[in-house]
Write a structure and sequence with these properties.
Chain lengths: 241, 101
């Protein structure tokens, strides 16, 4: 009974997330189409992965015909934050929650579903997360498929314009925190600069790095440098001090 | 050697979900290492920035249109507009500019 109430609440809270997902996934589908994915491949990939940056990164490897190991590396780097989110969720379960339910909740983690799950009052009822998952995942997958189909029927000029939709969303994700935290802003500026430099300065051409490999290496190096130069205060430390 | 798109997708699905699940099976307490926490704090923003530029200029028919979309998108996001308004502004900018470029 309590579980069915939690599930319905999850469905309700997941609805605005689901409509947002459709639009983001549509833009992702556009990129997936450019990388050569079929509508069905896009549906399956999105349904089981549910990670915009991660999926985009991997689809860009498909078009480059990159090695399979770089798919693992790209998935790891672009989705590292989920490691942190799942770690935070470990603190949110009642001791009675079974391992299987913990694992299933883990599979549901996206930025938004993590956000509402961690905000749940008291111990997290896994059925709340399952409800949000049940409404948002089909729309994420359908959005991708719709984007792939649209990419093949719309005129070239419209395709060119819609190709920047996903980048526009990325910009909207990175700029507000850059404004709030100067350290993020500097890291973002350095990322733009170095990403351009490595891809355009002749010297780097001799290493024959694929665009995906450059993304992975730059992300690791710049994030490590930022963490060394400007470490963040963690909640644990704040509590200890 | 040509790789199979399906194998890319399957590796992506397995890796991404393992990342989500592993902490829930292994980690009981919190990550206390300050470097690791700081590193994980910066990763999402850095990876999105690296993937956005200069790729946005290569996605459009005209690189100049992509660059202008980037600049106006940053200004729009900086002035407080959300995900969809920023995204739509970028698309409209490219659509209009490519009539002239």
């Amino acid at each position: 009974m309590e579980n069915s109430i939690a599930f319905k609440k999850g469905l309700k809270d997941g609805t605005p997330i689901a409509s947002g997902y459709f639009a983001v996934a549509f833009s992702l589908g556009f990129m997936a189409k450019k990388c050569g994915l079929s509508p069905f491949q896009g549906f399956i990939g999105s349904f089981f992965t549910r990670a915009s940056a991660g999926e985009y990164g991997v689809y860009s490897l498909v078009v480059q015909n990159a090695g399979y190991l770089s798919v693992i590396a790209m998935s790891l780097v672009t989705n590292l934050r989920y490691l942190l989110m799942s770690t935070a969720l470990t603190q949110k379960f009642s001791p009675e929650t079974s391992l299987l339910k913990r694992i299933l909740v883990g599979c549901c983690v996206t930025d938004e579903i993590f956000g509402i799950s961690i905000a749940y009052t008291g111990y997290l009822n896994p059925y709340y997360t399952f409800g949000a998952f049940a409404i948002s995942t089909p729309l994420w997958a359908l959005g991708t498929t719709t984007g792939i189909i649209a990419g093949s029927i719309l005129p070239a000029r419209a395709v060119s314009a819609l190709s920047v939709a996903l980048y526009g969303m990325f910009i909207a994700i990175i700029i507000p925190p850059s404004k709030k935290d100067k350290a993020i802003g500097i890291a973002v500026a350095a990322s733009f600069l170095l990403s351009w430099a490595v891809r355009n300065i002749d010297f780097w051409g001799q290493f024959n790095l694929s665009s995906g490999t450059i993304t992975i290496i730059l992300t690791l190096l710049i994030s490590a440098a930022a963490a060394l130069i400007h470490p963040v205060l963690t909640n644990v430390e704040e509590m200890d001090s | 050697m040509t790789h199979s798109t399906w194998i890319y997708i399957i590796i992506m699905i397995i890796t991404t979900n393992l990342i989500r699940v592993i902490p829930l099976t292994l980690i009981r307490g919190q990550i206390k290492n300050r470097f690791v926490q700081s590193f994980l704090y910066y990763v999402p923003y850095v990876t999105l920035a690296v993937m956005t530029f200069p790729a946005i200029m290569e996605a459009t028919n005209s690189p100049v249109a992509g660059a202008v979309a980037l600049i106006l998108g940053i200004i729009a996001a900086f002035s407080g507009l959300g995900l969809f308004p920023v995204s739509i502004i970028c698309c409209v900018v490219v659509f209009i500019l490519e009539f002239f470029l």
